[in-house]
From TrEMBL:
SUPFAM superfamilies: Thioesterase/thiol ester dehydrase-isomerase. This is 3-hydroxyacyl-[acyl-carrier-protein] dehydratase, FabZ form. Keywords: Lyase. It comes from hydrothermal vent metagenome. GO terms for molecular function: (3R)-hydroxyacyl-[acyl-carrier-protein] dehydratase activity.
Amino acid sequence: MHFDLVDRVVEASAEGAVTLKAVSLAEEYLQDHFPSYPVLPGVLMLEAMVQAGRVVGKQRGVREPLVLGEVRALKYNRFVPPGSVIRAVVTLGKTGEEGMLDFRGRVELVDPLQPDMVETAASGRFTLRPIRLGSCSAEVGTAGPMA
């Protein structure tokens, strides 16, 4: 299942990105999280940062799909209710072997009427890595004729 957590890319470079997402009560994942008090699931705040990180990957010319490799020091500070606008801000730290991209990121709760009033909803560090399709040996999964 794919959740699109980027409505708009505000800034994009090879070093960082800023994206926006309006969280609507119509979002399928809010129907049961939680039924009497709907909030954006924390893992989707992380996914918003990951999707912003993929924007950076595209800016850097990465062709392979980027997948989440590692998450470190992830902190959730605040619930994000429907009707909120979130801003994912990611900054590329270092690049590693085999195309690894290490990011610092945060998800901010933004009040469109007061853009200077920002609260951090989640923050942390994460690594994206290119998925290498077809890198497995041709012999994997072939057991030969059955006896």
